[in-house]
Amino acid sequence: MRKPATVAIGIICGIVCAGAVFAFMQDVKGEAAAARAETLARYGGEQIEVCVATRDIAAGEKLDSSNATEKLWLADLLPPDAVRSVRDVSGERLGTPIYEGEVVTAKRFAREGRAIDVPDGLSVLSVPVKDVQAIGGAISAGQRVDVYATGAAETELLASDVLVVSSSNEGESGSGGGSISWVALAVEPQAIQELVAASQKTELYLVLPGGERKGAEDEA
What we know:
Layout lengths: L1 H42 L3 E7 L14 E7 L11 H4 L33 E6 L15 E7 L4 E13 L14 E6 L4 H10 L1 E5 L3 H9 L1
């Protein structure tokens, strides 16, 4: 008698589990169908034409018919800010890279950055430097440096106590420490020509003056 009862209980449990799985799958399908219906209602069809990159496009490069085209794309898989036509963004520069075959989105044209404040009476210019010439790449905005030019024959001090306005190693937090390729300096307008010429003919080195020397200069 026990065996038939056990079999019956097993069958009932199986039916209950199957029913639970079926109900779960129906809920998932219902949510997917609702999302799909919303997407189709937004774009008005199964497939729509959108702007797609035909090759890798670097940040700062203009988007136009030479690197993008319109292609049919499944509406369900489109991001909400997909660009519909190349004409809508033709000539605009990308803020971030986009890769071949990728749908172009509006956020790709967003640029992140901070405004550069030019101190009164000074001018800001950028000069090329490498990590080894900029304290291992540790130079960052707000520091004050001495600028030296070194060539085959001699090394010359070009400017002292120069404010660093920005540098290529600054991330979103504004902190330095990474690889560096240029530094923006606030200098006297009359020093610009000499610095530009020196940056083309020699190598520039940035030096952080010590606290004792700075204190002595302040007293003087």
